[in-house]
Amino acid sequence: MTIKNNKLTSDDVKTLNQYWALANYISVGQIYLLDNPLLKEDLRLDHVKPRLLGHWGTTPGLNLIYIHLNRIIVETKSKLLYVTGPGHGGPALAANTYIEGSYTKHYPDIQKNEDGLKKLFKQFSFPGGIPSHVAPEIPGSINEGGELGYALSHAFGAVFDNPDLIAACVVGDGEAETGSLAASWHSNKFINPIEDGAVLPILHLNGYKIANPTILARIPEDELINLFNGYGYEPIWVESTDVNEIHQLMADAFDKAVHTIKSIQQSAREHGFTDRPVWPMIIMKTPKGWTGPKTFDNEPVEGNWRSHQVPFKDLHGHPERLELLDTWLKSYHPEELFDSKGRIKTNINKFIPDESLQMGMSPHANGGKLTVPLVLPDVTDFNISFDSRGYEKTSATRILGQYLAAVMDLNRANFRVFGPDETASNRLDALYDVTDKTWVAEKHEDDIHLQANGRVMEILSEHTCQGWFEGYLLTGRHGFFSCYEAFINIINSMATQHAKWLKVSSQEICWRKPIPSLNYLLTSHVWRQDHNGFSHQDPGFINHLANKDPQVIRLYFPPDANTLLVIGEQVLRSTNKINVIVAGKQPQLQWLNMEEAKNHCQQGIGVWDWASSSDIKSPDLIMACAGDVPTIEALAATKILNKLLPNLKIKFVNVVNIMTLANPSSTSEGLTDKEFNEIFNLQVPIIFAFHGYPSMIHRLIYNRSCHANFHIHGFNEEGTTTTPFDMLVLNKLDRFNLVKNAILRLKNIKNEATIIADMDHKLYRHKNYIVEKGDDLPEVKNFIWD
Amino acid sequence: MTIKNNKLTSDDVKTLNQYWALANYISVGQIYLLDNPLLKEDLRLDHVKPRLLGHWGTTPGLNLIYIHLNRIIVETKSKLLYVTGPGHGGPALAANTYIEGSYTKHYPDIQKNEDGLKKLFKQFSFPGGIPSHVAPEIPGSINEGGELGYALSHAFGAVFDNPDLIAACVVGDGEAETGSLAASWHSNKFINPIEDGAVLPILHLNGYKIANPTILARIPEDELINLFNGYGYEPIWVESTDVNEIHQLMADAFDKAVHTIKSIQQSAREHGFTDRPVWPMIIMKTPKGWTGPKTFDNEPVEGNWRSHQVPFKDLHGHPERLELLDTWLKSYHPEELFDSKGRIKTNINKFIPDESLQMGMSPHANGGKLTVPLVLPDVTDFNISFDSRGYEKTSATRILGQYLAAVMDLNRANFRVFGPDETASNRLDALYDVTDKTWVAEKHEDDIHLQANGRVMEILSEHTCQGWFEGYLLTGRHGFFSCYEAFINIINSMATQHAKWLKVSSQEICWRKPIPSLNYLLTSHVWRQDHNGFSHQDPGFINHLANKDPQVIRLYFPPDANTLLVIGEQVLRSTNKINVIVAGKQPQLQWLNMEEAKNHCQQGIGVWDWASSSDIKSPDLIMACAGDVPTIEALAATKILNKLLPNLKIKFVNVVNIMTLANPSSTSEGLTDKEFNEIFNLQVPIIFAFHGYPSMIHRLIYNRSCHANFHIHGFNEEGTTTTPFDMLVLNKLDRFNLVKNAILRLKNIKNEATIIADMDHKLYRHKNYIVEKGDDLPEVKNFIWD
């Protein structure tokens, strides 16, 4: 690719300056004005919003970058995506998409005239309008930036397998202090210049956060350059406080950056991948709140943290401030920007891209438009068959790994697997039969499965994995994230933000198309943390998600390999969900054949006849369970009870999809009361062995009429490094404690005391045995059903 | 301070090598051996543990560092603390504290003889023994490292206000990939060389994680150096694969590092603080699993990720592997290390510090030993007085800020306040009357409140704030963390790890003294996110903590300024807790005078007589609430009901400490059933207005006999940028919806339909008003009680 010498003409500078004034004017208008958008009338208090809510400080910088990206798009016909790290600068993105026309394409009610401008201004941060952040409502956005730190990993996620896409990612120097952002700079070790696109990070060094200077703005320039060299980038420095000078500097910097990106890509695509490239980045040092009020109340505002939000407020209480606003707005010369009908009159067309290349029209930012459904192999081909139930021991996740490998093989360029250095540990290594791990850093001779075009992505940062995955999904592709159950809590808050994005985009924004679901496999779970112990024992992620919109959340506990396969297929087909699958990686007993597994998973909950007594219409006891390990214990307890009390009628219930327990008014997954009561009867004690915290079940069944019959065993925050069975005993989720509780809840058991004593004796033997031998009792380890 | 030229003698090298061999032998012994600790007998299968659980890879490096730190302690009499980032290398820390004698001081049962060695070996990662990680059980530790990423921020937290302490912090190159760790390098911009100690980071570049190379080991050396220069450090490079050469290099590096640290401190302490110093760090590049098996099954182990855990396992299934273990163990020449009674015979005494300086004896690592209780001012001095209830509008957190300022003034060098750039936004800025913000980076002329000796610590990384705070607490000091409610979820998992640490250290380890509590103020809460919106609306942190050991967790919802003051004092007095206080920063109505506030907070829950009907022995309805905004709505609803139904008997209940609702068997805070039923009666509908998710209350009262009477209003994940009252309406927590629900739950209300229609009309008026005016109805905004 050749780039013209881009020395801007003085006309260009003037035009760009007008373009920027236009964007800034429309930004300030959104923050302040309820009416009189063109300042045709003298500004009055009733033209000003009663509650002034928004963020000015970052906005002029975001505008400047948008404009210069548009210039380079026009120049080079590049496909660009704008990722707004300082997402609180919402006015900038609304302004720019309005100017280029993409806003009106998405919201025909907001036309490019006086009425449209008035509506645009009023709706911002106004009840019934749009949020003040770059929320899903904004065309062209895949990153809200409400909770800071994820812009860069989202940008990288967006460009994987999009070789022609450049994600221009604005990183605020405030956001740059967060952990997730600090880690994500290293994503450049995972970009394949042949098959992936590129990220152009733009560090906006405006110097201040809410109320403090930023760290990166207060270290020497050479130290900052070193930092980014150390992260593997070649920084291009742009610095000015002169509105005329800045455009030339920006144009040069963007030319250089895009030219370097294209050269790197061209070279790799022509000659093959050799070494990790050093990608360009831009450091843009400009004043915070640039072009806004210089001071207010004798305190500095421009170039200071005081410009972060609304530079001056409470005009209704201080009408004299109206003049400040008037002066500020008029400094952009609206009469030169708009004609009398509110149409943009300044001639900036030469810097506005064709519609198909406008960033607000990017199909990548409305990823569902580009989604190609996965070609999914038949899970039956991966079926674990067995002669008798509860005999065959298989690692369920290993089988799932084989299935995922087949999915990978059928869907190259459309599917990736993510994990924090745990993919093999989680037994998904069959994937390496069909692909490798993404790796463009240095390689050693004895390395295995590391390739620039590998499709399993591992970095020891859960935040970066999650951010990449979200970026990949938001741009319409598919994926799978496996993680130790305890450590997925590290990204609790990221999952919250994604759930909020999904809720809003699926329920409130008609132009946003459904995107593939965010699928988690949580394994190495609380019950099998053999060498790790208490710090690795936490099943709380599901509780966290259960607080989010239940239409978005699905929580699955497949009890064996075949059910895991069925659920695996199901989640890969779904859209606009966060699916959590909890399943252990250790070899465990198998219970259902494929046909049964399919039926069971379709219902999400069911009675297992083969584990129940013959007459289950009127049982004496219900033994229920959710989770692979609890299922084993519940079955073992059932077997003990069958032996001790042959006449006891036990109904055995297994729950795969625990949202079936929830109130049907909150989620479509919830059983009706009739269905629920048919399964759980009305007057029978229910011993429920659950994988996670008992409170999770309590809250789901709170409104069910028979909920007082439930006696829930689960994780009670007791743990250490010990044997698998001892972990269950510590939390009273083991078979013996289940039997004890069943006996206590049943009435009229003649030999109650004897049975309790017998169970206590078994627990006593267990404790002695493990302290002496360091291993579980053989009778417990070798339990089989038949 | 002068340092001798530390060129080691060849005898020194030999001794250090033996010392290292000793530590490595004791490490391998812990991982593998059940018996025969001195290899006096030929190694048999029954000497080997049945379940081999632990991590070898990082261990020899941790040992090497420990030994060389001991050398420098002996040499310079420095006070050092060892912070183990790769905390899964538990055997190293157990081995080294055993060798120096501090382990036996803490656990007299483990003597330095054959029996003690046998016990030490057996207990490791064994039921009834010690966890495999550097858990609270290990003397000298303040950092477990189970969940990676917090070592460096813990280390910095430990040295604030400890001018003589050096925290040597080992950072694994795996951990270095995490977000929290990547951000925490910048902590050096917050170290005051005069009043704080120093952190010596030691990046252990052993090249591999669980199953992958690390990023930092696969970038060019100059890039890595640039990265750390960019982070503001001067790296000292130590690299070798030669066991004889390494000691000299390590000694030189540690000499240089400690010398530089002391020079920096001396200069600042003599001449005053001028510029931020460039602190030294060490990059130690040595093979992973060094001195272990070179290969296994023809695959590389030493210097490879395959050494990460137990290099070869299942000896019982493969008895031929016994020889490999025997060879490995004997490579350390145990016969030279121990005498026949298992006493250490190799003469390493010259490198073992005096007991008072041994890292395993550091009082800083058992911080409660050093805790000086805070001198607390009388909250009555900060009392908000008022003539009539519900008239005075005051920002509760602003008053708390004045109290915290007084606390700060009385407890310099013992108290710090932490926050992610939100201290002023959260209205705690009275603190700046008595102190400044910690800042040692560059300053500009117009900066305010930035000083090297400031005691308010702000960085836009919740992880770093939390890590600093934990490190400060774990070393026995006090603090306070204020944060937007939504974004505290970013450190959910860190709070989990701290809760686990507190549970174990307070309930299971008798030598660990109580440490001051971790106190959170969550403000800018879900109901007042005026300019931020949905991404900032999440009250889920309390749900997350409620899953942890209830003896460790306290959750407070003070309804006004005086109650906030009382709770503030209470949490600052407490130990071994995680206290969460949720209170808004906006000016709100005041309800209780100081005397009432004290009584109310002492009970944690209470009937407000003045808001109740005259006859509350047998009420018709209970109006209950927890949280400042819900209290206003519940009172407003009560007032509406009083007016509409003058004969209706309403009992008004406010909950400050929501753990009072919990089952008393799970927490000492829980009301007995008798107390609970006295407050909530038995047959009366209870309308409960709650600050957070209703599920939080459901799970707490699940076992209370009257729980079916509770009708809980709270946050239902509905939100956007809108008016404060509209947020309540969106979630049906507003006064009108509370009244509607009360009417529906009450029987025999004659004019039921009229009242419902009236409330619906008010809601309709509200919606119209906000969409038109962008503000709340005056009647709602100006509600007063009297």
Automatic annotation (TrEMBL), chains A, B:
Cited CDD domains: TPP_PK
One GO MF term attached to the UniProt entry: aldehyde-lyase activity
Keyword Transmembrane belongs to the record: no
Keyword Methyltransferase found: no
Entry keyword set: Lyase, Thiamine pyrophosphate
The Xylulose 5-phosphate/Fructose 6-phosphate phosphoketolase N-terminal domain, residue ranges: 8-369
Domain called Xylulose 5-phosphate/Fructose 6-phosphate phosphoketolase C-terminal: residue spans: 585-785
Biological process (GO), any one: carbohydrate metabolic process
Cofactor names: thiamine diphosphate
Domain of life: Bacteria
Family: Belongs to the XFP family.
Name of the featured protein: Phosphoketolase
Organism listed in the record: Marinicella pacifica
